[in-house]
Amino acid sequence: QKEVEQNSGPLSVPEGAIASLNCTYSDRGSQSFFWYRQYSGKSPELIMFIYSNGDKEDGRFTAQLNKASQYVSLLIRDSQPSDSATYLCAVRRSNDYKLSFGAGTTVTVRA
Amino acid sequence: DAGVIQSPRHEVTEMGQEVTLRCKPISGHDYLFWYRQTMMRGLELLIYFNNNVPIDDSGMPEDRFSAKMPNASFSTLKIQPSEPRDSAVYFCASSLLIINTGELFFGEGSRLTVL
Question: What is the per-residue pLDDT across A49-75, written as a single tens digit (0 to 9) for each?
Fold first, then answer.
């Protein structure tokens, strides 16, 4: 079982719609959860992090965490063509400082 | 403020040759990570350092790979001898523990092609 798994893409959504990305992790000791965005040919950049169960909102982005289900999600509201990228879920365990990344989900927003 | 700087940006070499990738982390950051990204395997952690000391090198594929961090402002990842399956984008990233957001600042990557 992979440490971090993401729903397979690619995900295509029309402009203005909600894009929903899912991620599950295997280690119950994981404490910190991150969403990185990676444009084609570029390096990953952090867009959201969440530590506690529940929702965390930042602009058009909402991260949701359910530790009991070992599940993290990212919602992108009012999707824009500039949101077209690969979104990487990353997890950090409490006794470690390294980040383990999922394979990523590629999102395409159709104008 | 300069970000993480990697060199070379692109490297094409032949199988069996030695490859050295270089990284300058953000000044003041105390963690440095080397990741490798391929279509098949995604973003894999190879090794990371804390205050120039290697903490976890369990992701280093085999003895052909080695990494050093002689000082706080410089790290190298060396592959000797290189093989075609080493072709990938190698990212260096740095982080500052005290911020504790877990944010890694990535360099632009070094794209390695081994023929």
Answer: 999 999 999 999 999 999 999 999 999
B34 has a chain A CB within 8 A of its CB? no
What are the pLDDT digits (tens) for A23-44? 999 998 888 999 999 999 999 9
Instruction: Output the CA–CA distances (angstroms, integers) from residue B63 to A7, A17, B43, B54, B75, in the order listed.
Output: 34, 48, 20, 15, 18
In chain B, what residues touch A49 (CB-CB under 8 Å)? 101-103
Residue A94 has pLDDT above 80, yes or no: no
User: Is the CB of A99 less than 8 angstroms away from the CB of B102?
Assistant: yes
Selected for mutation to probe chain A from B5, B36, B43, B105 (highest A CB count within 10 Å) is B43
In the stretch 48-77 of chain B, residues with CB closer than 8 A to chain A read: 48, 50, 55-56
Looking at CA atoms only, how far is residue A13 from chain B in angstroms?
23
CA distance, residue B64 to nearest chain A CA (Å): 22
Strand order of the β-sheet with A4-6 is A4-6, A19-25, A71-76, A61-66, A54-58
Rounded CA separation A24/B34 (Å): 24
Identity at B36, one-letter amino acid code: R
The model's pLDDT over B2-43, given as tens digits with 9 standing for 90+, comes to 899 999 999 999 999 999 999 999 999 999 999 999 998 899
Q: Which two tokens stand for residue B115?
A: 């023929």
Nearest by Cα to A70 from A36, A97, A102, A37: A102
